[in-house]
């Protein structure tokens, strides 16, 4: 008896028809036949035809067939969308057939908050376990290297979007929409993104091997604006005045605002340049208080 496996495409002969579909046979298959339900038929099918089908297990665990061939099968890779999350099992993804495919919790990050959310996308292939059950398997770094495009040219400071495909303690790996393999060091992000999340970063380096270093941190000018708003909002909680100015000690600035003294002075300088605040006798005030 031939060992037909879920996750593969095979050609069978339509042996007979029942009230709910067709039963498929093969000269090497000595079972009762594999069901091709009417809902899985594409086009006109008759007894005696040879049909190409994708094999999977139905909800009852029976090997069944569909003529709706998915984009990925055993041995091929592709992007799939997460459709459900079960913290005790893993995540389910859609491959374009009537049954969703599980990616086991064992193949996902240790912390559930870093798991893909519904709508995120993962680059996977299909495999089967020792019981013949089909599951999704994340692409390895070697597979990503095979499909990646080498970056070249003047990309510095350009913004790229891509999907997170690997998480490590030292940083985040992203495959950009252009196909570039990117790395974001832990110092270049304010929080760790989810596996499969769509992210955007700016190019800070193009490596000799064609990969890219990205940063999730904003340009200095953008960050300055964000820091300025942080200081301005803090002042609002104090009636538009604070006992800190550009000569305040660095350790106090770090403790109160979580900023370096340089970042604090740049942000404060922006607020003063914009005419929103002024300094006097070691204090900073809203301009309207004059």
From TrEMBL:
Domain Conserved virulence factor B second S1 as annotated: residue spans: 77-137
Domain Conserved virulence factor B third S1: 145-218
Residues in coiled coil: none
Residue ranges crossing the lipid bilayer per the database entry: none
Domain Conserved virulence factor B-like winged helix residues, every copy: 229-285
Superkingdom per UniProt: Bacteria
Protein name per Swiss-Prot or TrEMBL: S1-like domain-containing RNA-binding protein
Pfam families: CvfB_1st, CvfB_2nd, S1_2, WHD_CvfB
Naturally occurring in which organism (per UniProt): Bacillus spongiae
Domain Conserved virulence factor B first S1: 7-68
Family per record: Belongs to the CvfB family.
